[in-house]
Amino acid sequence: MKISSRLIALKYKCAYNSLLYINRNNPKTRQYQEEGLKLLEGRVERLPDKIAFRPKFITQSSCVKIFDKLYLFISKANLKKPAEEKYDALFHEIGHWLHFPQMPPVSECIEIWKGADIAKIEKEVSTRAIAKNDGREFIAEVFKGLAKGKKFDDYIMNLYRSLKGPKIKPAGNAYSSPKGVSL
Ligand SMILES: [Zn+2]
């Protein structure tokens, strides 16, 4: 590993430790995390055990790989969102997190993405799904939709599968929204 990547990793590690501190001491963020993860419980094979909440001056949520670990950073701004959008960032980042270990090499993703119907994806998935040129945002956005019970047609699902999008079980009896949360 290059020195520069090690420095970046250390910087994130420091930020991560302090963010966990914020999380532990804020019952609202803890509640957000527990509710959000509960909505996915039993629907995916595994869930992250640690989620950090970024300080409010950082607005973008993200998922980063540091050495062999993956971390989710979720902006606190999500807490104030309406119920139907509240967990969007959490589901999106968990989509990335689950995608990382099984993702094809980026060069392969770019090749697959070259043939994608961008207009259709923008309309049926989201504008965010067409960001970047490798389909990784598409995976996170489709995962988010599936987590919320959205159905996509064969074209979208085939593309999702060819980019090795994470499997998710459909919402069934095992899945119910926590009280007061509607998706
Ligand atoms: Zn993303």
What report would you give on this structure?
The chain has one domain (about 5-160). Helices cover about 50% and strands about 10% of the residues. It is built from eight helices and three strands; from the N terminus they run ααβββαααααα. The chain has a three-stranded mixed β-sheet. α4 crosses α7 (about 135-145). The longest helix is centred in the first third of the chain and has 22 residues, at about 5-25. The termini are far apart. Residues about 175-183 have low confidence and may be disordered. Zinc ion (ZN) binds near residues 92 and 137.
Low-confidence regions: 173-183
Number of helices: 8
End-to-end distance, in Å?
A: 42 Å
> How would you characterize the largest beta sheet?
3 strands, mixed
Tell me the strand percentage band: 5-15%
Radius of gyration: 17 Å
**Which bin fits the share of residues in helices?**
40-55%
Which strand order spans the largest sheet, edge to edge or round the barrel? 1-3-2
